[in-house]
Automatic annotation (TrEMBL), chains A, B:
The lineage of its organism: Bacteria, Bacillati, Bacillota, Bacilli, Bacillales. GO terms for biological process: tyrosine biosynthetic process. GO terms for molecular function: NAD+ binding; prephenate dehydrogenase (NAD+) activity; prephenate dehydrogenase (NADP+) activity. This is Prephenate dehydrogenase. Residues 4-281 form the Prephenate/arogenate dehydrogenase domain. Keywords: Oxidoreductase. It holds the Pfam family PDH_N.
Amino acid sequence: MALKRVLIVGAGLIGGSMGLALSRRMPHLEVDAVDVNPAYREQAAGLRAFRHVWHALESAPSDYDLAVLAVPVDAAIHLLPRVRGKASWVMDVCSVKRPIVEAMDRVLTGSRGVPSHPMAGKAQAGPLGADEALFEGRSWIFLETHRPPAEIEELVRRLGARVVRVPDAEDHDRRMAEASHGIHLASQCAVLAAEMDPAAIAEIAGPAFWDVTRLASSPSEFWIQTLGANREHVIAWLRRFEAAARSFRAALERGDAAEVRILLEEAKRRRERADAARNTE
Amino acid sequence: MALKRVLIVGAGLIGGSMGLALSRRMPHLEVDAVDVNPAYREQAAGLRAFRHVWHALESAPSDYDLAVLAVPVDAAIHLLPRVRGKASWVMDVCSVKRPIVEAMDRVLTGSRGVPSHPMAGKAQAGPLGADEALFEGRSWIFLETHRPPAEIEELVRRLGARVVRVPDAEDHDRRMAEASHGIHLASQCAVLAAEMDPAAIAEIAGPAFWDVTRLASSPSEFWIQTLGANREHVIAWLRRFEAAARSFRAALERGDAAEVRILLEEAKRRRERADAARNTE
């Protein structure tokens, strides 16, 4: 297969950014988009990245090589039966993989499914936030159970991303609970734990406060869907997170400095192990 | 009072950075240091910031205008009786204020105490981490109950810091639990909640993971003392933090997306309120 025609389904932040990067870096591709939101369609047209921006999937032709579902997880599952047959390959970019893979395996006949997940995003949603460099240096995760063709891996590399393969959807979702979904909740809990006026905290806060609480500004809609779709792993993570907080509290209540040290050293050891793995990539 | 002679007690990261900045920006000052650690003394001498680096407080003369206790909170309390009489003003830079203020009010006679707290630090401890720009743009907190003379506020501004006054030690310590001490524990708990190999998480982690868990690499010794010295407020913060995590978990267990939305929106509202206060300083 050689990729020639690509359809981006959903011209939001991810879809718009993919469109921008593909039109500039792979100009031989014909890239179309489809979005049901008239404002998004107008903004997406303004990016000058798409050959055509369709208003509905049904209007688009059925001879694409690749369709990318760049919509939230619920919408992606909903659209799968309708995108079937529009393209040889159908790739999603959702933050949770198990419900997507289950739907792909059930629904897609006549097209091949490529579950994927680029670790990229930013606070500003929609095509106005689109950025050609959004994927630069980021991981783009695929599953060993659904390996993409070489052409799709190459496309992802041209977007600047690093191809990472994990064993399966279950492994992906568990890792996401630990590397992303739980992390976002930690940030939100750190904000919700305060009882003083946020302005009084801001007056004296240093970089630690701003870095750790930054994610509390994330778009709620995305997170409601993501946490719901990965609830089993997120719930298990939250139990362990609460237990860690209780351990610190119990040690402080007992005035047990030795136990506080053990907890701090264990966290430090793990963080440094993660950092070492990151730096030796 | 005009500041002419300054003694930095403890030539670590904070003391070394103060020495560097003062020697370069206020060259009319005579700045000495004292440190009991021979390696720190040698490294501090290498900074070329101090006129003299004493090996013990008792060796230093007793005619300083200002002595700065740049040591951890337990050491500062321990040193207060011995620094009394060495300088007209004695300022500490510790991260917790109530035990310092209690000790200053009890011990310091013949010198005047200035409890203070610069919101600055970094992972590398000791004089080798010293950085003239460490305080640039950071808050330097004083207490209304122990207002410093204009000369000390001016010195702090010359270091690049922003003078902030809070009502008293109690208010300071409560704010610190919310803006810093609790925040560090949130970062540590986010690391401790993971059950996968840190290297497996690092492979797919995005900026969210690295930002939120960054503080888990902080020096344990400092945090054991700080958390212990502010335990009452930190314990109360941890209770609220655990409650926030339980609220998220309960909502996910019930599949209650509306409640998840309420929690996310409340965190977002508070974070944005803090951000607005920060940007209108």
